[in-house]
Amino acid sequence: MRVKIKSHVIKPLLDKEYPTVSHGRGVYLYDTEGKAYIDGCSGAITANIGHGVQSVIDAMKEQAQKVSFTYRSQFTSDAAEELATKLASWAPGDLDYVFFVNSGSEATETAMKIAIQYWQEQGRTGKNKILSRWMSYHGITLGALSMSGHILRRKRFIPLLEEFPSVEPPYCYRCPFGSTYPSCDLLCANQLEQAIHRIGADNIAAFIAEPIIGASAGAVTPPPYYYQRIKEICERYEILFIADEVMTGNGRTGKPFGIDHWGVVPDLMALGKGMSAGYTPMAATIASKRIIDVIAAGSKSIMSGHTFSANPQSAAVSLAVMKYIEDHRLIGKVEERGQQLIAGLQALMQKYEIIGDVRGKGLLCGMEFVKDRTTKEPFPFHLRVTERLIEKAMNNGLLIYSASGGIDGQAGDAILVAPPFVITEEEINELLFILDRSLGELALELE
Ligand code: PLP
């Protein structure tokens, strides 16, 4: 084998050295130098049941011994059938049908296409725009990025993107309308109605939102009744509501799906990340029976799909992950550990002036950093506050996730703290101890 350069892998930062992982056990990852890292963000909010779970490894092996790959146009499999049944049993309302894909971006893009097709099948061919929010992230492929209001990730590709983001986020810490809940009467939700008037309901297929805003802002949690209002507006104007549960789904927030905190039933849902807890790439779009009935009575086929969609190997793994969550009652534990985690983060806020806000639900917690807590002035972008904190934490043996999606007056520096559901009380204390130390080091430098 001819090795031409030191590493042939294109990594996120081309000028940075990354440690090489050796193995993972529970909430810890180990590199090849023997250093341990507590996985305080489940990788990318993905390794929901921790590393090295034996029942998942066994399921993987058992399925591989039967068959790993079949093509969805030729076969279904027991694993895919059982997984879809289980997902439908976790999902609210009539979200009964599952379309398997391989990443969150594919899941949101498939939801977009199903929504457009649903209206086309009824002769309403003009309804093909998707509305979304600024300060949102729905994926990196061009369709998903078109729906995303993540300025940093959009910017380079603007000429190729649709102008889908059209409403402000429900960002109470920095209300885009300078208002306060509840006297605001949910101006941010009402703005959807204005956008519909401007664009025309006859041109709009769906509205998409992350129940809790993750990658672009750090667990920004909408106020009570926000999604009830959104759903009401969508129904009034015959617009489908897509919940992007890629990060918030599968138990992460202490309920099966993030939207369950508002008791709203979406028309379509996108899942990914925690669905397979990272043991294999797997994602899905769940559609309501009503939508699939219309397509079944019309063209009879959803115009989407990927080579690896519904492959039995990934399905068996995801099914084992969901069974593990059920058998160990992990969603209840998320709620309990989440309370401990958020209390610990709030205690750190008492100690460090640079923490402007702490928020989130279950084990999806966020922290936003500010130069001045009173005025909420963000740190200048060039100070790289989030990245420096992440580097310090990693040096100290803790992994945390950047949620710093904002420039141009949007949200500033933020992180997500989202450990695996299996984290113990002592391990949360250890996580908080290392975060405290890392914040201390950063605060000193920023003085
Ligand atoms: N949707 C949300 C809410 C996400 O957080 C992400 C990834 O962070 C995606 C979609 C895209 O998922 P993937 O990176 O698997 O394509």
From TrEMBL:
Organism: Aneurinibacillus thermoaerophilus
Alphabetical list of Pfam families matching this protein: Aminotran_3 (PF00202)
Keyword Transferase: yes
Protein name: Aspartate aminotransferase family protein
SUPFAM superfamilies: PLP-dependent transferases
Gene3D superfamilies: Aspartate Aminotransferase, domain 1, Type I PLP-dependent aspartate aminotransferase-like (Major domain)
Keywords, ordered alphabetically: Aminotransferase, Pyridoxal phosphate, Transferase
Gene Ontology MF terms: transaminase activity
Annotated family: Belongs to the class-III pyridoxal-phosphate-dependent aminotransferase family.
